[in-house]
Every structure is written in structure tokens, then in C-alpha cells.
Amino acid sequence: MAFPPYTEEHAAFRASVRAFAEREIAPHAEEWDRAQAFPRELFRRAGAQGYLGVRFDPAYGGSGLDYWYTGILIEELMRGRNVGVVVSLMVQCEIATGVIHAFGSEALKREWLVPAIRGERVAALGITEPGAGSNVGGIRTTARRDGDTYVVNGSKIFITNGTIADFVTLAVRTGEPGPRGISVLVVPTDTPGFGVGRKLRKVMAHASETAELFFEDCRVPARNLVGAEGEGFTAIMRLFQGERLVLSYIANSWMREILDAALEYAGGREVFGMTLTQMPVWRHRLADLMTELEASRLLTWYATDLLCRGDAAGEVYVSMAKLYAGELFKRLAPECDQILGGYGCMEEYFVARATGGISGFAIGAGTSEIMREIIARRRLGC
Ligand SMILES: Cc1cc2nc3c(=O)[nH]c(=O)nc-3n(C[C@H](O)[C@H](O)[C@H](O)COP(=O)(O)OP(=O)(O)OC[C@H]3O[C@@H](n4cnc5c(N)ncnc54)[C@H](O)[C@@H]3O)c2cc1C
User: Fold this and answer.
1) Which atom of ligand 1 is nearest to the CA of 126?
2) Is the overall model pTM greater than 0.90, yes or no?
């Protein structure tokens, strides 16, 4: 059996997303990064194509498909070569809305999920706080019940879409310390007391908007509670499965774009009478990277397969896929940057922008490869 188990429907969906990325993202990718701002209109355009509710129930405007389609969506959107844009879109259609889709009341779905799927209302997910990141159970933002409202106080940091969101799917403390006192609340950003502290400037994914958020006596209707009180932590942990899979696809696709660009450069660049791809040392390093990227993609696909089949092993494989892809990026990016020599530090080159020109010190005053040649000749005598 072919793996992944793609059908003609998958191929048609892939072709449609690829055309969208080539038309709507690629021509503007550099400009949006320079502006460090997300083009809000893109939500509507993606929504009109049905890309913001791929896995969601058709009753709310979704397509009722599965993670294979989410994976294809990411693989093809990334061809537009703007990782920040894809991160923002995925927060909108998976990361911030998944909990509402899975656990929200009918009214919440109608009010927030439906317009989010259409791209008319922008979503953000607020979990991380200045004092609690990995330790989600340690969040301190409180929501105190007062009649038929919750009064929210606290702050969040690193929130994607934070500056442009119409609502935040917010992790709050409604009870005892620790995971069991956590709930999830939908907070409209026009609620008095809500504020964006500052837009955070990042050194990567420039086009996604990232912000610090503040909540000061924000009164939110009690009906905005997602699921039951105290069940927020469990809901968030379940949501993380999808979020981690999404991140694996984004990382793999970003590496594919970087490696493709590096290979194209290497194939055309002559040094000492041969192209870089003809040089044994680079051929082997590139072969290693191609192999590792393929392994990363296969692991992500395997995790997708398990999640789609509802196999309990999916949880650990999703973590493996995310771990492998994230760590591979840290090896692949500098290698791809290195092969560009000095051009790997020049903003006009995609590889340089995508890797932050990480190899600068290993290029100037004689590259690392030339240093190795000198050392080898002197010490090995040949
Ligand atoms: C671009 C970007 C976008 C983001 N978007 C969002 C968003 O939309 N919404 C949101 O809620 N959050 C968002 N985040 C926040 C992200 O989820 C957190 O940064 C992440 O969970 C880590 O938390 P932290 O930064 O507080 O690091 P910490 O938890 O303080 O970790 C610091 C270091 O300690 C290590 N560490 C922590 N615990 C352990 C342990 N038990 N054992 C060993 N080592 C440990 C970590 O691995 C890390 O290396 C975003 C972050 C970034 C960079």
C-alpha cells in the first residue's frame, strides 16, 4: 500500500493550495516579512477557499476532513516561503479554534468558530504567561465567577495573532493551584480591560504578529466557558497533539524550501573548477541532509496516520515527530547557510533570511571548509 495513503482527492486539494500559495503568498512574502505585519485580508481569502476549517464539522462551515489534509495544506502553503504567514493561519484554523470545535457549546461555535472558519474573525490562543511557559499548570491569570460573568485578571506573552485577534481562547485559573484549577474561556478583544501591551519583534517568522496581552477586570459572559470548569488543562493537552503535528509539518516544509534553495545554489556555483554539488565533501553532507529530512517527514506522516486512526500510540509519535523536526532544523539550517558562502549572510537570499545567516563567522576570513583543507594538508601531508 502506498504511504502516505493519498488519493486523487488529496492530489486535487494539494494542487488547489499550491496555486493559492503561488498566487496569494509568494509574490508578497518578502514585503510582509520586512513590514513585520500580517496581511489581515489573507484570512478572508484563505477562508473563502475553505482552508480555515479543513478538519472542522461541515455544520459550522468546515470540510470535515482529517489531519492528512491539514498536512497537505501546510506543505503547500509553505511553498509561498513565508513561515510567519503560515504560523498565523494555522493558529487561526487549528491551534486557537480546535478547543472550541472539540469542547465548545453550540452557541460558542456559532458565535466564534463559524466566523473564524470564514476568516471574518481572527483567533488567538492565550496560554503562555511571563511566569509559566512549559509549566502550563502554573498559569496565574484568574477568572473569578461573579453572577453570570467571569472577571479576568492577568497577562499572557508570546501570543500569535495577539495584536489583530478578535477573540482569545484563553487559559485561566478558576480554581485550585495546579492543572485541575484551569479552565478555558473565549475572551472577545473588545471587552473593556483587555489590552495589547506591546507587539514583540521577533528574529524569525517576522510576518506573524506576536504580542503581550493584559486583562484588567475584564468581564466575560459565563457562557463563554469552553467545556466545564476545571477541565481546561485536559482540553489544552489534547489540543497540543494537533498543535505539535502542525509544527512538525511547518518545520519539515520550511526545511524542504531551505534545502531546495541551497541545492539550487550549490548546483550552479563553481569553486576550484567544479560545482559544489560535484565536490565529495558537499555531496555527502547534502545526501545526509536529504536523508534526515526524508526521515523527519516519514515520522510526521506516521504520526498523522496514527492520529487519523485514533491509535493511542499517536501521542508519543507526534512528540517524536515534533522533537525530530525541531532538532533537525538546528542542524540543517546552518549547513544550508554555509554552502552559500558570503551570500548566506545577504538579505536578498532566501536561505539567508530563512536561517538568519547563522554561518557568518564560519565564512569570513576563510570558510570552515577551507580551514579544514589547510589543517588536513598540513597535518596529513596530502
Ligand atoms: C514564535 C512563537 C509563537 C508563540 N505563540 C504562542 C501562542 O500563540 N500562544 C501561547 O500561549 N504561547 C505561544 N508561544 C509560547 C511557547 O509556547 C512557549 O515559549 C513555550 O511553551 C516555552 O515556554 P517558555 O518560553 O516560558 O520557556 P520555559 O518554560 O521557561 O523554558 C525555558 C527552558 O527550560 C526548559 N525546561 C522547562 N521545563 C523543563 C523540564 N521539566 N525539564 C527540562 N527542561 C525544561 C525548556 O525546554 C527551555 O529550554 C509562542 C512562542 C514563540 C517563540
Assistant:
1) 11
2) yes
